[in-house]
Design goal:
Blueprint lengths: L9 H13 L9 E2 L3 H5 L8 E8 L5 E8 L20 E7 L7 E5 L4 E3 L10 E2 L2 E2 L5
Parallel strand pairs: 4-7
Antiparallel strand pairs: 1-8, 2-3, 4-5, 5-6
Length: about 140
C-alpha cells in the first residue's frame, strides 16, 4: 500500500471490493474479498509468543481455538511488515459477524495481535485488509 489507508463501516467494506474487482482489480487479480476472521487472524505474527487462547468462528461453521493476544513484549506491528508495509495502527474488519451480537463484527488489531468480537459495532469505521478469494476449482 502506498496511499493513505481508508476506514470503512462493515457494510461499506463489503461493498468496496466489488468496484475494485470490476475495475481491473489489483496485482492482476479480480477476486478480492473482505476476509473471514479465520483468514484475517492467520496474518498475526507474535514475535514474543502469545498470552492466551481464544475461540473464533471457523469457515466450516464451528468454532476453532487459536493462540491469541500477542505477548506484551511482541514487536508492533504484529504481522510481517515486508509483506504488509504501512499497516495502520488500528482495528481491521473481518467479514465475520458475531453470532449473538449481529450488530458487531470480528476485528483484529495488528498493533498488539488482539482479536475481538465485542469491540466493533458494524456502523463504526475500521480499516480493511483485502485478501484473495480461495478458488474451489
Amino acid at each position: 500500500c502506498t496511499d493513505d489507508a481508508i476506514r470503512y463501516s462493515w457494510d461499506a467494506a463489503q461493498e468496496a471490493v466489488a468496484p475494485l474487482n470490476r475495475n481491473g482489480g489489483y496485482g492482476g487479480y479480480t477476486d478480492w474479498i473482505v476476509p473471514h476472521i479465520q483468514d484475517l487472524s492467520s496474518l498475526i505474527v507474535c514475535s514474543a509468543g502469545t498470552q492466551s487462547r481464544d475461540a473464533i468462528p471457523a469457515k466450516g461453521g464451528f468454532d476453532i481455538v487459536i493462540d491469541a493476544d500477542c505477548a506484551k513484549t511482541s514487536v508492533s506491528p504484529t504481522l510481517d511488515p515486508l509483506v504488509f508495509p504501512n499497516t495502520a495502527d488500528f482495528f481491521y474488519l473481518s467479514a465475520s459477524s458475531v453470532l449473538h451480537w449481529h450488530d458487531n463484527a470480528w476485528v483484529v488489531s495488528f498493533n498488539n495481535g488482539t482479536i475481538s468480537d465485542y469491540l466493533y459495532n458494524k456502523t463504526d469505521q475500521a480499516y480493511v485488509r483485502g485478501v484473495r478469494a480461495v478458488s474451489t476449482d
